[in-house]
Design brief:
Chain A is mostly helical and about 800 residues long. Chain A is about 70% helix and about 5% strand. In chain B, strand 5 and strand 6 form a beta hairpin. Classes of the chains: A mainly alpha (about 800), B alpha/beta (about 650). Chains A and B meet through helix 1, strand 1, helix 2, helix 3 and helix 4 of A and helix 12, helix 13, helix 14, strand 7 and helix 15 of B.
Chain lengths: ~800, ~650
């Protein structure tokens, strides 16, 4: 069994398929078969069936073929028992089939059905044998067009011959819209017919049939005939043609057919055709037919990337690298190689290949972020001087080399974001420089979004927001449908400053949808993961987010996206804990799709994003379950404020909870100094939140108000605190942040409790519980419920 | 009550028909059941007689109730005896049964009457002799003379309990038989009158443990010297009985009938009925040790329903009661098979002239005599123009009567074999056995009952399975058995599509294999869709595929039929790396949308996936993944 099939069968285990393993027929089954075929009572055919079962092993095809043979189905006269040895014959006197069991016992049969059929085929007439050979070479199906062409070539009526072969059980006939079509009754019969020819015979026949069909291909746009003709010639092999010019013609034909297959999105066939085309090229092809040769190699390399044959990519790259006349001619193949290495997960080699390419193409070397600050400043000053419309209306890139370079940069830039983020900005900067110098291309929206991301990391927030918006506009202006998912994913780092979190979720949803449509699996899953994360941040019902996460994890596992998987596992664990309680963090696996939190934590040591993500989640969890301690809070805070982690929505949320925790500690502090320390720290967070709120009041207003309320409460400014709490709750309601409304209600409840407004406190706690439950954070709701029960009972009792 | 019944009778649709047997006092004690003529009674007269019977019944009931008040043990006294007590009814012209009666059953050896067990799917089984006796011993409702009356349900229901109490005390010389008798008393709302055999009835002790539930029917049987009967009766109907030879003469299509009705059709119809009789007879004989001497044409009676109903024929085999148990000859298996052959020969061939001479012969002593008297042998069969399978059955049966050294290898050796052949012939008809020198290999699925059951179960399991993966060696029949799911899909009103991967010499691009399926699906939709559905699906596809549909159009030109916009856009793709995934996704979406518009289940067969390339396998996986709804299932098959 071929490797692809084995792998596919293994992959079937994920589906709930019923498996059925068919064994050979039993004696009873054989008897039923024989009885029905001979049209006699099973009682009468049983002795014969026992012999046949023994001889054919109960294989129905073997049995049928043997019976056909024995019953004269392949001979001219079925009435003459002598023709077939007399073991099974039609008795005229009894008007029924009968047999000689002893002779049947003596019949010697091949061990396997194919050998038996081959022997049977050797008995047919020369005409029929020719028909079998033609059919075997053409493949399993022969339509009327092909039959007509080959009948003319061979000067025989293939249709009649095929009809006779049909009567003899070798072929079957089907009526189609386009006429009668013949095909082998079973693939084993095709196998047998093909094995009746020597390899030389096969080659000669394939070439003859291919050349007969080829002239018809030229005039008509008949894809099936095109592929049939070229396939026949390819089956004959390059050794069958000695003339160099003819070889070149065949190579060109393969190039044409391969491009057509590629147009039809059939890259496997395309790769096969390009490969055959290369085989037909002569030794001096680079000298005599440079263009055809280069195009064949480049096309083969590109197709090899798509079918994931990295060895082939390397092979074709080496050939092109050696024989190409200039660097520009090499770029396509280099691009294919880099893509192939990235897709194969061989990132180190990909970086090496990329650096070689940069060197050969005369591109600047890659530098770390810290080394390109001056270049960034220069670029920013240029950008500041350019109107939005000017940037959006830049001319399109004309040079093919530049387009290829941009393609390599984009592919590499995405990979390097995860492998070595330090040098990612230099790639982005170079892409922006090329854009300014040579104009726009289909990747420009992605370039703008990456540049916006880079600007944000270097704290150019205003410019970053501008480029984020420009990227979105560019997506609409130019035909850049394909890069939309990667643009949206990149803008995660920027959009939160301007767009409501909920709108971002919808953007990622669109990104996922487009990614599915364009086949961009990586960015589809990236958008999927962002839908989950943004859903969590925006306070979507946790049950829904959890379901989405399960789907996302399943697909990530299928794509072996391990780095993303860890992040998703942490988010999934966080959701499960809020829904079910802290104990779920100790589970070994969650929802039968992903490992538990402990295993996830063991995998994140080198992943800065994941470490930061975990600290944020732990901080949030500690606050929501009121298991805060100064020591751990300080530790978490340190990680959350890691300068290496770019500021992004989740980090904003982390900082918000840090602020809440600090005010909590301030209230709990017994020493004045300590209280002041925490108050001061909390003030820093308020300042930060105020800055973000000025960019996006929708996303940060309620958070800012709540922090301010906490501060006022700590300072004993009860009137101000009361107002701020109410405003925060109102803002959270207006901006649909149910989870933050719950937190605000709860904190407000504590405030009222402390100030002796018990009915207000009870009302606030109840509202808080309701909101937590709407968020589906049931474990948190239970915690508040317990608090209310234990505290307010006492109040009421008193 | 009676008014109601009469009204029902008058207004029955279709109108009830009644038979009356001409009364002949001399025949009362006659062993034969064939005397007297059955004539149809005009409805008016029938109703009059029914009314009279009902009035009599009411009067009788009042009288008995009065008696029972005075003597609570009266009934048991009337019913009489224990073991060995014999009650003989000598005059009973007609009986109207008012109750589903319990049949009496006891071991065969205790009786000289044998009642073969015949499967009965829907009927009550009533022995009129038993019924007659019971009717006489219980608060019965005297019948209208010579009238077969049906549907006296209200009376039946009233008398059930009473009958159940009484039957334990009644001894009859009959063995009841059940088959698949309906055990629900309410389903047996009719009695059946079966003629005047009851004069020959012996009564024996009925074992008290025989449950009433077994007896929801009435069996009519009587015979010259004891009798056995097989019957299948319907809840409403009248039965008549004929000697087998008479039955054959009556039923076998004459040349003039054949001309009118078509010879083969008439013959097939006759053969189906004859095989039904043959099967019942053989089943009975295979289960009971009937004396050899009783296995003869003369002793075989056929009861048929009136109006005729499908498979509603009863066979009665008369047993010679004069022979003592010890004196009976069972004969060898071959003798008995041969004896059956003598019955089946005229039955299946329609040749009754040769046995005319023996028809009235009351006693046949031994099988050897039968051979001589009827003079049948396998060679004779060759002269007859009989269908080959019939000839084979008769020949192999009659061979059993030859001397041992002349018995061929194909001669029957057991009743089971005979039964299998008869049933197969009846089930599948003559065409199954049509002999031709130009025979074709059977295309039926043979020897795969378990697999077929498993496939059926898998098909029915809509939510639990995404499809079936069939594996097996080359030539083992994977494609054929996979086609079974397509058949059951079509039979269930669903739609089946199939594609087949070929050896890697295949010329067309692999995605064309999926194109075949989708083109068929699109054709299916387009053939039945209304203009508004066309608009809707086009809108759905626009939303789902957008301008990428132009790519799919390249692979699937028929897409334009349901999405005209797919040709109106051009997509420039400068990086084709992800196109394969894109096409996969679009195919899944297209399938999802198309299926949502198609009524019924959709089954897709991917045959010979061992020849599929990696890209095609990947597409199949995607389609399987999207196969989560109840409307479609996929069958994939490999080697």
């Amino acid at each position: 069994m071929q490797d692809d099939l084995v792998a596919w069968l293994d992959s079937m285990s994920v589906f709930s398929l019923d498996h059925m393993k068919l064994e050979s027929l039993t004696q009873d089954g054989v008897n039923q078969f024989v009885s029905e075929t001979l049209r006699l009572f099973p009682r009468l055919t049983r002795p014969l069936s026992l012999v046949l079962h023994r001889k054919t092993g109960g294989n129905p095809l073997f049995l049928g073929q043997f019976l056909l043979s024995s019953m004269g189905g392949r001979d001219a006269s079925p009435y003459s028992p002598q023709m077939r040895g007399g073991e099974l014959y039609f008795s005229l006197s009894q008007s029924r089939w009968t047999w000689d069991i002893d002779k049947m016992e003596d019949v010697e049969l091949a061990d396997v059905v194919v050998t038996f059929i081959v022997n049977e085929m050797k008995k047919v007439s020369a005409d029929l044998m020719l028909g079998l050979r033609v059919a075997a070479c053409i493949g399993s199906r022969m339509n009327s067009t092909v039959i007509g062409i080959l009948s003319s070539e061979l000067h025989v009526s293939l249709c009649d011959i095929f009809l006779q072969l049909t009567e003899r059980g070798f072929l079957s006939k089907h009526a189609t819209v386009s006429g009668t079509q013949f095909e082998f009754a079973h693939d084993k019969i095709l196998e047998a017919a093909y094995s009746c020819m020597s390899s030389r015979e096969r080659r000669v026949n394939h070439m003859r049939f291919g050349l007969s069909l080829y002239p018809r291909v030229i005039d008509k746009s008949n894809d099936e005939l095109l592929f049939l003709a070229i396939n026949q010639i390819n089956m004959a092999g390059s050794d069958s043609i000695f003339d160099a010019d003819k070889k070149h013609v065949v190579a060109s034909l393969n190039l044409i057919a391969g491009k057509r297959a590629s147009q039809l999105s059939d890259f496997q066939t395309a790769f096969s055709l390009f490969r055959h085309g290369i085989l037909f090229l002569g030794a001096d092809c680079w000298d005599k037919h440079y263009d055809t040769t280069l195009e064949l190699y480049n096309s083969a390399a590109e197709a090899a990337v798509i079918v994931n044959d990295l060895d082939a990519v390397n092979l074709y790259f080496d050939a092109v690298n050696l024989r190409a006349k200039c660097v520009d001619d090499k770029l396509d193949c280099i691009c294919a190689k880099v893509k192939g290495l990235i897709r194969g997960g061989r990132f180190t080699e990909a970086i090496e290949a990329f650096l070689v390419m940069l060197n050969e193409a005369g591109e600047p070397t890659l530098r770390p972020f810290s080394s390109i600050q001056d270049d960034m400043k220069a670029m920013n000053s240029v950008m500041t001087g350019l109107e939005d419309e000017t940037l959006l209306s830049l001319s399109t890139i004309k040079r093919k080399k530049t387009i290829t370079l941009m393609s390599i940069y984009c592919e590499f830039g995405q990979m390097i974001l995860f492998v070595d983020p330090i040098i990612a900005p230099t790639v982005t900067l170079r892409m922006m420089q090329i854009t300014i110098e040579e104009g726009l291309c289909s990747k420009s929206a992605l370039v703008f979004s990456r540049y916006a991301q880079t600007l944000f990391a270097s704290n150019h927030i205003g410019l970053s927001v501008r480029f984020g918006r420009l990227a979105m506009k560019l997506l609409e202006r130019i035909d850049a449908f394909e890069c939309a998912p990667s643009v949206y994913a990149a803008l995660y780092y920027v959009l939160w400053l301007t767009e409501p979190f909920q709108a971002m979720t919808e953007t990622f949803r669109l990104g996922k949808q487009i990614g599915e449509l364009t086949g961009d699996v990586f960015n589809t899953l990236a958008n999927n993961a962002l839908i989950c994360l943004m859903g969590y941040i925006a306070g979507a019902p946790l049950g829904d987010v959890r379901k989405q996460s399960v789907e996302c994890i399943g697909r990530m596992k299928g794509q072996n996206m391990l780095a993303f998987l860890v992040l998703e596992a942490l988010l999934h664990s966080q959701i499960a804990v809020l829904m079910e309680g802290s104990h779920i963090a100790d589970a070994e696996s969650l929802d039968d799709v992903i490992y538990g939190e402990k295993e996830a934590l063991s995998k994140i040591q080198d992943n800065v994003d994941a470490v930061s993500c975990n600290e944020i989640f732990q901080m949030i969890r500690a606050f929501l379950f009121r298991k805060l301690s100064c020591k751990t809070a300080r530790f978490h805070t340190m990680k959350i404020f890691d300068p290496n982690v770019p500021e992004e929505p989740l980090q904003m949320i982390g900082i918000f909870f840090v602020g809440l925790s600090w005010f909590y500690f301030a209230r709990e502090a017994k020493e004045v100094e300590e209280k002041e320390y925490w108050m001061e720290s909390g003030g820093d967070v308020i300042e930060k939140m105020g800055c973000w709120s000025s960019h996006s009041a929708w996303n940060f207003q309620d958070k800012l108000l709540l922090l301010k309320a906490e501060k006022a409460y700590c300072r004993g400014e009860t009137d101000a605190a009361s107002t701020l709490y109410e405003e925060s709750i109102k803002s959270a309601q207006e901006h649909k942040f149910i989870h933050e409304e719950a937190i605000a209600h709860e904190l407000c409840g504590h405030f009222y409790l402390e100030t002796g407004r018990y009915p207000d406190a009870l009302r606030s706690f109840n509202s808080s519980i309701e909101c937590y439950m709407s968020w589906e954070a049931l474990a948190v709701a239970r915690r508040v419920e317990d608090f209310v029960r234990s505290n307010f009972f006492g109040v009421e009792e008193a | 009550m009676s008014t109601k019944i009469v009204t029902q009778l008058l207004h029955a649709n279709p109108p009830r028909r009644f038979l009356e047997k001409t009364h002949d006092a001399d025949d009362d004690n006659d062993n034969m059941g064939g005397e007297g003529q059955w004539n149809e009674v005009p409805l008016k007269r029938a109703v009059t007689k029914t009314s009279q019977a009902l009035r009599d019944a009411a009067r009788e009931r009042r009288s008995i109730e009065a008696e029972s008040k005075s003597n609570s043990n009266g009934l048991s006294n009337i019913c009489g005896g224990g073991a060995g007590t014999t009650t003989t009814r000598t005059t009973l012209e007609a009986t109207t049964f008012s109750s589903p009666l319990s049949l009496l059953q006891q071991p065969f050896s205790n009786s000289n009457i044998i009642l073969p067990k015949i499967p009965s799917s829907s009927s009550s089984i009533i022995n009129p002799a038993v019924a007659a006796a019971v009717a006489d011993l219980t608060p019965s409702y005297p019948p209208a003379p010579n009238l077969n009356l049906v549907e006296l349900l209200p009376l039946l229901q009233r008398s059930n309990a009473f009958m159940a109490n009484q039957q334990q005390q009644v001894d009859f010389g009959l063995i009841g038989f059940g088959g698949e008798m309906d055990s629900d008393p309410s389903a047996a709302g009719a009695g059946v009158f079966m003629g005047d055999f009851s004069s020959l009835m012996d009564t024996v002790v009925r074992p008290p443990e025989i449950a009433f539930a077994e007896a929801c029917g009435v069996v009519a049987a009587a015979a010259g010297g004891g009798v056995a009967a097989t019957t299948t009766t319907t809840t409403v109907g009248i039965q008549s009985e004929l000697n087998l030879v008479e039955w054959i003469r009556q039923e076998f299509p004459s040349s003039s009938q054949a001309q009118v009705g078509g010879e083969s059709v008439m013959m097939s119809k006759y053969l189906a009925s004859a095989l039904g009789i043959a099967i019942k007879l053989t089943e009975f004989l295979s289960e009971n040790e009937v004396p050899l001497e009783s296995i003869s044409v003369e002793n075989t009676l056929v009861c048929t329903s009136y109006p005729p109903q499908e498979d509603d024929v009863n066979v009665i085999l008369k047993i010679q009661s004069s022979s003592s148990s010890s004196g009976r000859k069972q004969g060898s298996k071959n003798d008995r098979l041969f004896a059956v052959g003598q019955i089946l020969f005229p039955l299946l061939s329609g040749s009754v002239d040769e046995i005319e001479v023996n028809y009235f012969s009351p006693q046949i002593k031994a099988s050897s005599l039968v051979i001589d008297s009827i003079n049948l042998n396998p060679v004779q069969l060759e002269r007859l123009d009989l269908p080959q399978p019939v000839k084979a059955i008769l020949c192999n049966l009659l061979e059993c009567g030859l001397e041992e050294e002349f018995v061929g290898k194909e001669a029957y050796t057991s009743f089971d074999d005979l039964l299998i052949d008869l049933k197969l012939l009846k089930l599948e008809g003559l065409s199954r056995f049509h002999q031709s020198p130009h025979i074709e290999i059977s295309e039926n699925i043979c020897g795969r009952d378990k697999e077929i059951d498993a496939l059926n179960a898998s098909y029915r399991n809509r939510s639990g399975s995404q499809g079936v993966l069939i594996m097996g060696a080359g030539g083992v029949g994977k494609s054929r058995i996979a086609a079974h799911i397509l058949e059951i899909t079509r039979k269930g009103g669903g739609h089946a599509f199939a594609t087949k991967f070929d050896l890697n010499r295949d010329v067309s691009h692999p995605l064309s294999k999926f194109g075949e399926i989708f083109t068929d699906l699109i054709d299916l939709f387009a053939s039945a869709a209304s203009p508004s559905e066309f608009l809707n699906i086009s809108h759905d596809l626009d939303n789902a595929l957008g301008n990428r549909a132009a790519l799919l159009y390249e692979v699937l030109p028929s897409l334009v039929r349901i999405m005209p916009s797919c040709t109106q856009v051009q997509v420039f793709i400068d990086d084709r790396t992800n196109i394969a995934n894109s096409i996969k996704f679009m195919l899944c979406k297209l399938l999802e949308i198309l299926i949502s518009y198609v009524n019924g289940r959709v089954t897709v067969l991917f045959d010979d996936v061992q020849w599929a390339d990696a890209a095609s396998l990947s597409v199949i996986s995607s389609l399987l993944k999207s196969n989560e709804g109840p409307k479609h299932c996929s069958v994939v098959e490999t080697t």
